[in-house]
């Protein structure tokens, strides 16, 4: 682990938060909402400069940031306040941070995909010698895999993901064969040694990539990243994954450092994944998150009157307190894992 990779990882993680807050900032300015403060980092500030109505601050801790708008948690709804902005603008301002994270993640993936000249598609080109699940009622050469146990396959990498989500080694697979969809049941697929390599034994078609293919691949991979976040959340709620397996800023930075040491391409792909992850998590309808605030906007739209701001503020404050406790817990778990690995 070098100082350079640590600094790179911290800066990268910090940039994702800044991009998120900058999304709120730009949407607020477009709506005519006064932005009082814009923080880069958290904690006490060591430098600041006021530009127009906004005080831009650099803070000691490199994680986090904030865009402080007038009238966020108050009853005042005068022009220039968040509460006084039209409901459509308020929704856009609240969603803009997550949208910027989605856009950044997609652009990183696209930039990494554009130089590629060829890639694979989930169309079976052939099988390794001894592969068992071949035939009319099983897999056949030329089949395009569409889904595995209901998990939609868009990219070749989705095949491995779909198989990893299964509970055994038999799968229900939907393929496109001769222009028609065909459902295959109880297809046996498990890693085995083929030609001295441990793999599933299915070979996929390699094709030359057009610009359209590259853009499509970037869209699909970005969608996959968001989908993996939802899958992880479902596993957390169902108990398949424990809270002690979650990571906070310390754990994420450690993974970024390790990835940067092995491959810069993998490092930037991980940045893209984390950016999209932040976007998805912030849109969850939980108090203190952007999604929680959007939920109150939706309630106002349906009820045609807002929930009293003080009660909304109490709910967000309680949610923030719980979020901070969770952050302390996962950060402590990160530290324990680091000490155990040391």
Q: What labels describe this entry?
A:
342 residues, zinc, two-stranded antiparallel sheet, transmembrane, alpha+beta, Pdz3 Domain, elongated, 8 helices, four-stranded antiparallel beta sheet
> How much helix is in the residues?
40-55%
**How many angstroms does the end-to-end distance come to?**
11 Å
User: What strand order characterises the main sheet?
Assistant: 5-4-6-7
Morphology = elongated
How many domains, as an integer? 2
Question: Could you characterize the architecture of this molecule?
Answer:
- Its main location: membrane.
- This is Zinc metalloprotease.
- It is an enzyme of class 3 (hydrolase).
- This protein folds into 2 domains: 3-114 and 244-341, no CATH class; 118-208, PDZ domain (Pdz3 Domain).
- Helix 2 crosses helix 4, helix 2 (87-113) runs antiparallel to helix 7 and helix 5 (249-262) runs antiparallel to helix 6 (264-282).
- The chain is built from 8 helices and 10 strands.
- The model has no long low-confidence stretch (mean pLDDT 85).
- Helix content is 51%, strand content 23%.
- It is of the alpha+beta class and 342 residues long.
- A 4-stranded antiparallel β-sheet has the order 5-4-6-7, covered by helices on one side. It has a two-stranded antiparallel sheet with strand order 1-2.
């Amino acid at each position: 682990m070098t100082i350079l990779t640590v600094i790179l990882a911290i800066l990268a993680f910090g940039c994702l938060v800044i991009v998120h807050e900058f999304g709120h900032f730009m949407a607020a300015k477009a709506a005519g909402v006064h932005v009082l403060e814009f923080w880069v980092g958290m904690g006490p500030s060591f430098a600041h400069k006021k530009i127009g109505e906004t005080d831009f601050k650099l803070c000691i801790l490199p994680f986090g940031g904030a865009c402080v708008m007038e009238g966020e948690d108050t009853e005042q709804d005068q022009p220039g306040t968040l509460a006084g902005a039209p409901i459509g603008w308020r929704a856009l301002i609240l969603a803009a941070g997550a949208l910027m994270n989605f856009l950044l993640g997609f652009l990183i993936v696209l930039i990494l995909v554009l130089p590629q000249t060829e890639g694979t598609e989930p169309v079976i080109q052939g099988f390794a010698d001894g592969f068992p699940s071949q035939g009319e009622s099983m897999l056949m050469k030329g089949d395009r895999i569409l889904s595995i146990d209901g998990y939609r396959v868009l990219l070749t990498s989705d095949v491995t993901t779909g198989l990893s989500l299964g509970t055994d080694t038999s799968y229900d697979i939907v393929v496109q064969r001769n222009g028609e969809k065909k459902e295959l049941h109880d297809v046996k697929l498990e890693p085995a040694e083929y030609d001295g390599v441990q793999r599933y034994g299915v070979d996929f078609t390699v094709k030359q990539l057009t610009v359209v293919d590259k853009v499509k691949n970037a869209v699909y991979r970005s969608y996959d990243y968001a989908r993996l976040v939802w899958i992880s959340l479902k596993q957390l709620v169902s108990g398949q994954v424990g809270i002690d397996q979650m990571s906070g800023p310390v754990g994420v930075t450690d993974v970024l450092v390790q990835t940067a040491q092995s491959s810069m391409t993998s490092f930037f792909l991980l940045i893209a994944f984390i950016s999209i992850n932040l976007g998805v998590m912030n849109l969850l309808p939980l108090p203190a998150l952007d999604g929680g605030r959007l939920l109150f906007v939706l309630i106002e739209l349906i009820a045609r009157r807002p929930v009293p701001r003080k009660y909304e503020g109490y709910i967000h404050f309680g949610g923030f307190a719980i979020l901070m406790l969770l952050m302390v817990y996962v950060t402590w778990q990160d530290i324990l894992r680091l000490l155990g690995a040391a």
